[in-house]
């Protein structure tokens, strides 16, 4: 796993050993960043369920102004911290080592994000819990986007009831990216 493009291009990143995390493959990461490339420069990027931190670090490498990482697992959080130091993005990043909902509450009033990316454990409905929180939150900027990496059988039929719209669904062989916007 590596940074694909930008100022930290080709730098290898550490990953957490074992099956606790499921790193996004370089091919899927590249496809995602090609889709959102125009949104990245100068943006505030939130990486929830960060794992190794590769998504937020890729965003900073490509010109994001700031990235915040949230990771509850202590080994994974240590991996994020190591990757932040290795890429020399210590001034452009912040790590919360806590559960996602506690971190979101702690960030309220401190940050506003252009892009919120989450890759929660599959089939545990964490994306539903996070979206339930975000529907009444000020963390997402007015024209911001939420990107959920999910299993292929994840349903998002509840989005309209929460005040969200599924703008795009990009399907891969083993998973998908749901691009979600808040209704104005």
Automatic annotation (TrEMBL):
<dbReference type="InterPro" id="IPR002052">
    <property type="entry name" value="DNA_methylase_N6_adenine_CS"/>
</dbReference>
<dbReference type="GO" id="GO:0052913">
    <property type="term" value="F:16S rRNA (guanine(966)-N(2))-methyltransferase activity"/>
</dbReference>
<dbReference type="Pfam" id="PF03602">
    <property type="entry name" value="Cons_hypoth95"/>
</dbReference>
<keyword id="KW-0489">Methyltransferase</keyword>
<dbReference type="InterPro" id="IPR029063">
    <property type="entry name" value="SAM-dependent_MTases_sf"/>
</dbReference>
<dbReference type="GO" id="GO:0003676">
    <property type="term" value="F:nucleic acid binding"/>
</dbReference>
<keyword id="KW-0808">Transferase</keyword>
<dbReference type="InterPro" id="IPR004398">
    <property type="entry name" value="RNA_MeTrfase_RsmD"/>
</dbReference>
<protein>
    <submittedName>
        <fullName>Ribosomal RNA small subunit methyltransferase D</fullName>
        <ecNumber>2.1.1.171</ecNumber>
    </submittedName>
</protein>
């Amino acid at each position: 796993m590596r940074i694909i493009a930008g100022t930290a291009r080709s730098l290898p990143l550490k990953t957490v050993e074992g099956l606790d995390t499921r790193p996004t493959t370089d091919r899927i990461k590249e496809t995602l960043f090609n889709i959102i490339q125009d949104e990245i420069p100068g943006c505030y990027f939130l990486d929830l369920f960060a794992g190794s931190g590769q998504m937020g670090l890729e965003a900073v490498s490509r010109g994001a102004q700031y990235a915040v990482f949230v990771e509850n697992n202590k080994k994974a959080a240590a991996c994020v911290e190591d990757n932040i130091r290795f890429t020399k993005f210590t001034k452009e990043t912040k790590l919360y080592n806590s559960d996602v909902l506690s971190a979101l509450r702690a960030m309220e009033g401190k940050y506003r994000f252009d892009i919120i990316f989450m890759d929660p454990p599959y089939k545990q409905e964490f994306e539903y819990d996070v979206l339930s929180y975000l529907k009444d939150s000020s963390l997402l900027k007015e024209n911001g986007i939420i990107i959920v990496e999910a299993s292929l059988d994840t349903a998002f039929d509840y989005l309209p009831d929460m005040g969200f719209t599924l703008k795009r669904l990009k399907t891969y062989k083993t998973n998908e990216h749901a691009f979600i916007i808040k209704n104005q």
